[in-house]
Amino acid sequence: MKKITIGIIGAGRIGRLHAKNIIHIPEVRIKTISDLFADSAREWASKIGIENVVADYEEILIDSEIEAIFICSPTDTHIPIIKRAAEEGKHIFCEKPISFSVEDTEIALAAVEKAGVKLQIGFNRRFDRNLLKVRNTVEDGVIGEPHIVKITSRDPAPPSIEYIEKSGGLFFDMSIHDFDMARYVSGSEVVEVYANGGNLIDPEIEKAGDIDTAVITLKFENGAIGIIDNSRKAVYGYDQRVEVFGSKGSITVENDRPTSAEISTEEGVFKDKVKYFFLERYKDAYITETYAFIDSILHNKPLLCTGNDGLQAEKIAKAAKQSLVERRPVKITSET
After folding, report:
1. Which domains does the chain possess?
2. Would you give the end-to-end CA distance of the chain in angstroms?
3. Predicted confidence (pLDDT) per residue in 185-225, tens digit
4. What are the two backbone dihedrals, phi and then psi, of residue 195, each rounded to the nearest 5 degrees?
5. Per-residue CA distances from 129 to 126, 171, 253, 276, 290 (Å)
């Protein structure tokens, strides 16, 4: 059985999540993990069988034995790492977004194409079984021509202000998953964006230069209309719903709950609250996306989430940000 040797750059929450998932794939060996705080990561890494922990990710990039890398470091490090990894001929899995700059992302994608390596972007929702069902149903024409795409995406609680200050803003940090999902389930490109947003949760978020609540209207190339609503604080849990309404019907995905049990008494009808956090809601999707990346390398299969998918989502985020500032719809062109 052929094995792939990989390195992971970044041992924060998402890096550790990927590492825990990868160690269960028999075709993969994690040789090295890098993190600026290598000493604090070493004990954790040892517990899951990763003995080599370094502070400088360059040690991973120059290691000829390592064939692929997972980039789980902060967004502002992604572009230089992608370009260096491409130079070294390594396949790349990169968490979203690729960058906060469409122009920088295009440069990185050109480097990847020149090197002939694979680049998968971490839009994990594409690998959720429910959302895959939506995509396939639309693609098969079951609900006819899509007319309306509705996406609700609300976090249970806002992240720290320190995180928000470095996040690139709500559109690049949070909504970008929804922008990708809008393209994914509709099967069409977004051609115009109109964003409205405000601060209804925490004045400190406004002081940090960001919004915490937004409604974004999209126009698609195929004529459909999209509506995304985002909030940094849904007190009842992680609210994730999608509907595509078409000429022959509709398909809807509701929230996941710990159980589907429903209790009915004279006091009322009761269900479990929705799952509280994205790590719970998309646990299986994270595993599936990792398998898909490894499978594409082992068997030279097309990627299910490409660098271009990351680029197109960034273009929508950029247009949304411009729309919010200028209070007008913004068209997306090839130059956006």
Report:
1. 4-117 (3.40.50.720), 125-282+312-331 (3.30.360.10)
2. 45
3. 999 999 999 999 999 999 999 999 999 999 999 999 999 99
4. -115, 135
5. 8, 25, 10, 19, 14
